[in-house]
Design brief:
single chain, 6 helices, mainly alpha, Fumarase C, Chain A, domain 2, 61% helix
């Protein structure tokens, strides 16, 4: 069961990373600047964040390989089938950690995209999520270390703040 969960959870990051690519790629983003950098000639914007997301997705694909197919007899042949459940649980925990990082990167890119599209607005739930992110992380107008921003948004994911903001603004659960 944990191996199946790992496959499903890993796919969430894969889908999220593809949305990140659509936001940072000027050929796909309908007019947003390359890598969501307002001055893309001088700044790299979210380029490295997207590369990091892609790397985590690739690592998840390796981690999602089922541990249960790697049973080997142990204990002098007394345990002829080992479920590898503990290994599956450890791998799933790592995948889950990676997914939260990739989702945080996607949320940062989405917030930046909203900023770059102003004065246009989006739905009330998305505006509430955007406001919650911006209360912790400013828009990236020039390059800066992005790890603290990712950690801050990941904390908002982990503590349920973003979900609460969306629900309060009128989203369905």
């Amino acid at each position: 069961a944990l191996d199946a969960a790992a496959l499903a959870v890993a796919e969430l990051a894969s889908i999220s990373e593809r949305r990140i690519e659509q936001l940072v790629n000027p050929h796909l983003s309908s007019g947003l600047p390359p890598f969501l950098a307002p001055d893309s000639g001088l700044n790299s914007g979210f380029m490295i964040a997207q590369v990091s997301a892609a790397a985590l997705v690739s690592e998840n694909k390796i981690l999602a390989h089922p541990a249960s197919i790697d049973s080997i007899p142990s204990s002098a042949g007394r345990e002829d089938h080992v479920s590898m459940g503990a290994t599956s649980a450890l791998k799933l925990a790592q995948i889950h950690d990676h997914v939260r990082i990739v989702l945080a990167i996607e949320l940062l890119c989405g917030a930046q995209g909203i900023d770059l599209r102003r004065p246009l607005t989006t739905t009330r739930p998305l505006e509430a999520v955007h406001a919650a992110i911006r209360a912790r992380v400013p828009a990236m107008m020039v390059d800066r270390p992005i790890a603290p921003d990712i950690a801050a948004v990941r904390a908002l994911i982990d503590d349920g703040s973003l979900l609460a903001a969306a629900r309060t603004a009128g989203a369905n659960p």
